[in-house]
Amino acid sequence: MTEVKCVVFWGVVTFFWTLCRGDRDVSCVFSEVCILPCSFQPADGPAVRWTRLAAGGSVVHSYYDGRDQVQHQNQNFRGRTSLFVDQISSGNASLLLTGVKVQDQGRYVCNCSSSAGTRLAFIRVSVDAPVKTVNLRRAENRIICSSDGIYPEPNLSWSTEPQSKFVLHSSTLVQLTEQQLFNISSSLTVPDNNTDLTYVCTVTTRKNHKTGRLVNPETAGRAQGLGIVAGVILVSMSTMAVPFCVEKCIKSRKSKRFLQQNILLEGPPENGSLVETPDSEETQILHPQENQTG
């Protein structure tokens, strides 16, 4: 009878408190650390009790008499919870939850009591395992897209670049793991006449989305072939240009040497001097200015 009264009491308290304050939403990431916030008016003799409101309530963490009390803690939270003990005296009753699981989502109540009174805070926890990678591979006339370890259940969609006028035919399989995570895989049939398309697979959840792209092997091979042809042409042009430049340079030097020899044999022009500049390969003839007499 006492247990029934206790359950009814907690139900009434939860109902009216929810009407007055509402829940505070906290989003946690699977397998990571999450903080459930809670605070109270600092006073003597603080006691903190965290409870998950499911199946009559399960004790998540308790603190009183100046230390943690884990003897009544639910087995699912064993070794994964802690309080900021050095901050309890200043009114911080937040819960640190490590190794977050999908099963941790739900409603929690933080019950703080001290010589100043009692305060309740309600937290609604949601858990997400975002999309990390999208894998694509080719298998004969099909493209396989897959992504693992996601929560909640994701959506998978196909598209092409550029957009195709043909309808894309695919089959998708979703599997649930022991950790309550979802693995998703989809098989897309590739039409024989769509050889110039890039296939795009997008996996989406409420938290994020990831996209993978697979270029059609025929398109990729053709592009690679064009690159090789262009490279061969450039090399051939370079090979032809080198002898031409060398021959032109030799002719230029011979012409210069012939000019110098003629000048030395015949002598410089009248009233002129022969000068060879060191910084260039040009030969100049300088004519002195005539003195102007008045």
Automatic annotation (TrEMBL):
The compartments listed are: Cell membrane
Give the UniProt entry's GO cellular component terms: external side of plasma membrane
- Name the keywords, alphabetized: Cell membrane, Disulfide bond, Glycoprotein, Immunoglobulin domain, Membrane, Receptor, Signal, Transmembrane, Transmembrane helix
Keyword Membrane applies: yes
Q: Which GO terms describe its biological process?
A: cell surface receptor signaling pathway; cellular response to lipopolysaccharide; immune response; negative regulation of T cell proliferation; positive regulation of T cell proliferation; T cell costimulation
Q: Where are the transmembrane segments?
A: 225-246
- Quick one: where's region Disordered? 269-294
**This chain belongs to which protein, by name?**
Ig-like domain-containing protein
